[in-house]
Amino acid sequence: MRASHPTLLRLAVTFAALAAPGLAQACDFYRTAETRMEVFDMPITGSGLAVSILPSGSSACVVESRTDNAGNSWDRIDFYMHENVRYSAAGWLPGGSVDNASDAAPGEAATGATATAPAMAASAETGGSKEAFFASSWALAPAQSSINFLSTKKGNVTEVHRFNELSGTIAPDGTATVSIGLESVQTGVDIRDVRMRFLLFQVDTYEDATITAKIDPAAVSAIWEDMRLTTEIPFTLNLHGVEKELLIPVTISRLGQGMVSVASAKPFIINAVDFALDGGIAQLSEAVGNIGISANIPVDFDLIFAASLDG
């Protein structure tokens, strides 16, 4: 017998109230819910009470896999993550095929060894285990990533700009490289885009800016359990023929099993003079009537990387 919709709604609210991280068992693997799934309390031979709903796009921490007396497989979960928030949801999800599973029904005291996880969790979902996650290569997802910067003119007029052409990778050893196509600068005004390309960035000589960094996998291992980590990472920025090291606070977030975000924890300032861009700023100013343009450029980024299938 399944719970009524009001009961499920009440239970979902109860679980949402328990969102603060607490003590949890180590996960054998994370299982991603492609669609909404029901979590059952002590199901036996396929029947049981639905105690909550796992939202689509969430990742459940599976701590055990078993088979009931009727041959149905089940995954016991301890909590799940949805939109980077942890929710308590102890119960059982209907599983796939499980090898060497116990004959005991889910919910009964387990006396034997824990069954092995379904094969799909280890192979079909890249990053489904901690070892696989940190052994993966990662490729930048440009459509989901952003690098924005601000310009200030006349002392108090601030405008937001971005780059549309981004590419990059993170190797298993943590070596990260991001390339920014400077000609893809977008300011919202066509003539200003052209001026920035040729007067400021001089794209006929300097087509790209590059960011390189070394991320220590051991130092960021906390994101496997906590899903998010804020730390400082030294970046090397090569822009306009000048290379300079920057220490930037970043937030690294694990987005389910196959994606990770590396984002600036707060905007940081790049001084145009440090990258020999002050001459270009002077030309921009002259082109619009010699108005004042600040050389201090606030920048923020959110770079989304997807695990490579061959990583």
Could you give a short description of this structure?
The chain has 6 helices and 18 strands. It is of the alpha+beta class. It folds into 2 domains: 121 residues, no CATH class; 174 residues, Lipid/polyisoprenoid-binding, YceI-like (Lipocalin, Beta Barrel).
Notes on the structure:
- This protein is α+β, with helices and mostly antiparallel strands.
- It has helices at residues 5-17, 119-123, 130-135, 190-200, 223-226, 278-287; strands at residues 29-32, 37-44, 47-54, 59-67, 73-82, 85-94, 138-140, 146-153, 157-163, 166-170, 175-181, 185-186, 208-214, 228-239, 242-254, 259-264, 268-271, 296-307.
- Strand 2 and strand 3 (47-54) form a beta hairpin.
- The model is unreliable at 1-24 and 97-127 (pLDDT under 50).
Break the fold down into its secondary structure elements and pairings:
Elements: H1 5-17, E1 29-32, E2 37-44, E3 47-54, E4 59-67, E5 73-82, E6 85-94, H2 119-123, H3 130-135, E7 138-140, E8 146-153, E9 157-163, E10 166-170, E11 175-181, E12 185-186, H4 190-200, E13 208-214, H5 223-226, E14 228-239, E15 242-254, E16 259-264, E17 268-271, H6 278-287, E18 296-307
Helix pairs in contact: 4-6
Arrangement of strands in the largest sheet: 7-10-11-13-14-15-16-18
Secondary structural class: alpha+beta
CATH superfamily of the largest domain: Lipid/polyisoprenoid-binding, YceI-like
What top-tier CATH class of the largest domain fits best?
Mainly Beta
Calculate the terminal CA-CA distance, rounded to whole Å: 44 Å
Q: Tell me, what's the shape?
A: elongated
Please name the CATH topology of the largest domain: Lipocalin
Low-confidence stretches: 1-24, 97-127
Largest sheet report: 8 strands, antiparallel, barrel
Domains (count) = 2
